[in-house]
């Protein structure tokens, strides 16, 4: 893991071509052997690529729409893999050196509008205040080989949860333990000490993940789903 920590700290500079030749070569050698760091490289590239469009809004839609369509057409996935992958991602993001969120706003509408613009589908930002969680910020990411949005919340005790969103299209209901609550199916998964709860609602596959146990996460997921029904 010491090797990964070194590499994770350099990935952002690598994408920006700011590393020396020897640093880049050392990083590439690690990347060729490490799937975790390769995943962070892909997510970092995609995030930077999408954010570039902020400065060229006229060019963004056609190119972005084409890419998102291609992404979704090619990649069918399952709720089980999604629940696993977001748990894996929570671990990766926790391992990254502190990076600013792509958006920090107290406004649900502003956060939803910002993230929706980049991912190409309507991102829903539930209000989790009555579950005790406040919004910390939002990020663009890359999950199950698709563009995803994630919103990070925290409670008063410092427990953080992240809500991932991908388009529901071609997400099959298999590969995970199903729990039915409030007439809705929730799917459980875990990886690297993180737990995930996935559910399908509106046009979105939601995935809530954190270090909390599954029963607590399920409670928060139910609160989020109920809030989005309103
Ligand atoms: Zn690594």
Provide structural commentary.
The chain folds into two domains: 48 residues, no CATH class; 161 residues, Phosphorylase Kinase, domain 1 (2-Layer Sandwich), CATH 3.30.200.100. β8 and β9 form a beta hairpin. It is globular. The longest helix is centred in the N-terminal third of the chain and has 18 residues. With 230 residues, the chain is of the alpha+beta class. It has a seven-stranded antiparallel β-sheet, sandwiched between helices. It contains seven helices and nine strands, in the order ααααβααββββββββα. The N and C termini lie far apart (44 Å). 46% of the residues lie in helices and 27% in strands. The site of zinc ion (ZN) has 7 residues, from α1 and α3.
The number of E-state strands comes to 9
Briefly, what CATH class of the largest domain?
Alpha Beta
Average pLDDT works out at: 89
Query: Which compounds are bound in this model?
Result: zinc ion
